[in-house]
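Researcher: I've got a protein sequence and the SMILES for flavin mononucleotide. Could you write out the 3D structure of the bound complex as structure tokens? I'd like something to compare against our soaking experiments later this week.
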Amino acid sequence: MLHKDAQSEQKCTTEAVLNKHELEPLQSDSTALKVREPINRRFSVAPMMDWTDAHCRYFLRLLSKRALLYSEMVTTGALLYGDSARFLRHAECEHPVALQLGGSNAEHLAACTKMAEQAGFDEVNLNVGCPSDRVQNNMIGACLMGHPQLVADCVKQMQDAVQIPVTVKHRIGINGRDSYAQLCDFIGTVHEAGCMSFTVHARIAILEGLSPKENRDIPPLRYDLAAQLTTDFPDLEFILNGGIKTLAECQQHLTTFDGVMLGREAYHNPWLLSEVDHQLFGDAQREITRTGVLEQLRPYIAEHIAQGGKATHITRHILGLAQGFPGARRFRQLLSADIYKTDEPLRIYDQAIAGLEGR
Ligand SMILES: Cc1cc2nc3c(=O)[nH]c(=O)nc-3n(C[C@H](O)[C@H](O)[C@H](O)COP(=O)(O)O)c2cc1C
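Model: Sure. Here is the predicted complex with flavin mononucleotide in place.
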């Protein structure tokens, strides 16, 4: 099972950051004690709605065995009353993989966290960063930064329901509640409820007047405030997120933070992940080429088509793979236009691979 392989590899070279809950012995049905492997959050790919679905994660896993992969945010309503099998589906090779939940009803969140654990996810993350109006109306996302005790109550019930770690992804504030003291109050309160790992999107969210997209660019990044948290809460794990584009920047931030999380750059330039295991985790360099990755992905696409799916459900996530090459435009053209017009998508896919020959 790749899950176990990846986790045992993980122990070999890099000092894994330990979460209190991950070290607790687990009581199995047979009453034998098992110790859960710690999750290494040194490098992760951010949760991104409509982007980091199971197909995307499958593809990204071909590039890095070590990156922790996050799902899109799933609301508790969608999981409890919708097509839960679809939201929980993931391949064995995706591990380590975390499910991100959106919600603020502690009982519902606890029930969903249990579902995620039973489905095999390695971690559940609570979204306290999404600024969209739609989610605010339902008390989901960044607006919860204004309700630390509610977040703490949710985290406590979630963590009490499972053995896997519950983590929180948040902003450094929201408009009207953006002082460092208020950020510390948030972290301290949520930590008391049992959260040991915080992923900090290092800008505030402006809840009125900016779109979610603008909220990812306009409020300035404040890495200094995120860094201050690591000094003021030395026992907690902090993962830095927001605006990171290169592995050199990752290396730099890893001198301060326990981990880095990349969103848009990982999606638009996925080849960056091919160096993560070597450069950030100290693994031996792997022989890996873009064409090799595409060939490995081919049977997965063929299987998806055989089950009635469309090749484009998968290929839409790989358009950035050729970024920076002379053939990149043709690659994108084939996979973003031509493949939609054909009834032989794998033939177009093979043409796209052939265009990258030797890369
Ligand atoms: C298309 C898109 C969808 C996103 N969806 C989510 C989400 O579901 N949950 C979440 O916590 N953040 C979401 N985000 C925010 C990212 O996780 C991340 O915090 C943000 O993009 C900043 O990181 P970056 O500069 O590395 O992209 C989304 C971002 C993008 C671009």
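Model: The longest helix spans residues 290-306. The longest strand covers residues 68-75.
Researcher: Great, I'll pass this along to the crystallography team.
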